[in-house]
Amino acid sequence: METKTELIKIRCTKTEKMQLQNRAKKAGLNLSEFCRELFTKGKVLSVPSFTKQELEGIYHLKLYARNFTALSNFLKARDVRLSLETKKLADTIRRVINHFYIHRI
To answer: Hey, which end of the chain has fewer CB within 10 Å, N or C?
Structure first.
């Protein structure tokens, strides 16, 4: 990675600077990173922070998926139909988790 040695100074109002700082903070970037990405790409792609409730939901979905996978593995030798249904359910939960992550970006 090339070392950043060049400096660009811009003039803005205090209000504009505060707006840029707030947007950078929401994007999880510092002001330099935010401006660099905005200037070079024309937009800032970032993942917003999850709320406490969203993180808890994701945790439980992952836990359910892991538990259903374990159950599916246990049942494989006993009843193939039950095993297949359990695996389908675990796969559905994984798709929901992946869908949730993809749509947050």
So the answer is: N
Predicted TM-score (pTM) of the model is 0.46
28: helix, strand or coil: coil
Residues 54-63: contacts with CB under 8 Å, at least 24 apart: 58/97, 58/100, 61/93, 61/96, 61/97, 61/100, 62/97
| CB distance 47 to 103 below 8 Å | no
Alpha helices (runs of H) in 1-105, residue ranges in sequence order: 14-27, 31-41, 52-75, 80-102
What CA–CA distances, in Å, run from 11 to 16, 17, 48? Answer: 10, 9, 28
Residue 74 in tokens: 């246990």
Q: For residues 87 and 101, what is the distance between their CA atoms, to the nearest angstrom?
A: 21
CB-CB contact of 52 with 60 (8 Å):
no
- Domain extents in the chain: 10-46, 52-102
